[in-house]
Write a structure and sequence with these properties.
This protein is an alpha/beta fold. It has twelve helices and nine strands. Helices cover 50% and strands 14% of the residues.
């Protein structure tokens, strides 16, 4: 990755069989980003519909001021892989990710760039199709539903409040990009990006954008199946792509929370509570390391010593809440100390 930024803005555009949209896309880019300080990097991801020839023709016209790179991949490798290659070949201080299908408006991309380039404390902006009162057209209920569910799960897993993790319009400062080790090659790249940004302690701002959903006849490629696959990626980036200490904490807290669940219900109901509390333990393990998690467990154990039957259950719940509050305060207290990795 280049060390010096010879350009102000790099726009990375993955393309796979978008021949019907490329000319209009090119005109939109010229309208909003026709500047010598900008570079456009189009990664042709193994297109076989004439997109490659059209891109070559557009490049030859030379009626634009920005620099234009066209990277041709022999085989279709996925949106994520195309984005990774585009980023590696970028030189800009800011990197804008833009889809080629015109579902997202280049005007919004321009507004996002102006915002991040003038507010130096902002390093990352995600477009959101759900925040603004801008014009929208969305024909796919299940795609929309799964996208919102994924964003909710992501927020729970990573303590965020994002409304649209999957929006393809994003802009990042080079300092953010340099901290990322992207590895997911398909549409799961959006989850990969967001999770790594959060893990590296960058704040994600959101900006409401327009959205014009195209139909399958028009070439829409993402389906509800990709949405379901994203559930797997959410599990992967949250529960497997962690440090050893975090994975240990996840295992530890899930076990003791299963113990808490054993105090609820009877028979099959008891098994269901154990499973539910086990899942809660997985989430606690994400946010609390061994020592702060041990505080919660200690309070739960003390609570289990009180009362009988339902009285014990109530005591466990009360002491669990108390332990959670104490653990939070301890985590904050030690956040800037040498013990932060244990709390």
């Amino acid at each position: 990755m280049p060390q010096e930024n010879s350009k102000t803005l790099s726009i990375v555009i993955p393309v796979f069989n978008e021949v019907n949209f490329l000319e209009e896309l090119f005109e939109e880019i010229k309208k909003f980003f026709n500047n010598e300080s900008n570079e456009i990097i189009i990664v042709d991801d193994g297109s076989n519909d004439g997109s490659s020839n059209l891109l070559a023709e557009l490049k030859k016209k030379n009626n634009y001021k920005f620099s234009l790179k066209i990277i041709k991949l022999d085989n279709n490798s996925g949106k994520g892989k195309a984005i990774q290659i585009g980023i590696k070949n970028s030189n800009g201080e800011y990197i804008l990710l833009q889809d080629a299908d015109l579902e997202l408006d280049c005007k919004d991309a321009k507004e996002m760039f102006e915002m991040i380039s003038t507010k130096k404390d902002i390093k990352c902006i995600f477009g959101s199709r759900y925040l603004s009162g801008k014009l929208k057209k969305n024909n796919y209920f299940f795609n929309n539903l799964i996208g919102k569910i994924n964003s909710l799960i992501f927020n729970v897993f990573f303590s965020q409040s994002l409304s649209d993790v999957h929006c393809g319009l994003k802009i990042l400062h080079r300092s953010v990009i340099e901290q990322l080790q992207l590895s997911i090659n398909d549409f799961g790249i959006e989850i990969d990006l967001a999770s790594q940004i959060v893990r590296n302690n960058f704040y994600i701002y959101e900006y409401g954008v327009s959205y014009f959903s195209r139909s399958k006849v028009q070439g829409k490629k993402i389906t509800w199946i990709d949405g379901l696959k994203s559930f797997y990626y959410l599990i992967k980036v949250r529960f497997f792509d962690n440090s050893a200490s975090t994975n240990l904490s996840i295992a530890y807290s899930s076990v003791y929370m299963a113990f808490v669940g054993s105090y609820f219900g009877m028979g099959l109901g008891n098994i269901l509570f154990i499973i539910i509390f086990y899942i809660i333990g997985l989430i606690l393990g994400i946010h609390f390391k061994i020592l702060s998690s041990s505080i919660i467990f200690f309070f739960i154990f003390v609570g289990s010593l009180f009362g009988k039957g339902n009285g014990t259950t109530l005591a466990v719940i009360i002491f669990f809440i108390l332990g959670l509050l104490v653990a939070l305060k301890s985590k904050r207290f030690f956040s800037n100390s040498k013990l932060s990795n244990y709390f």
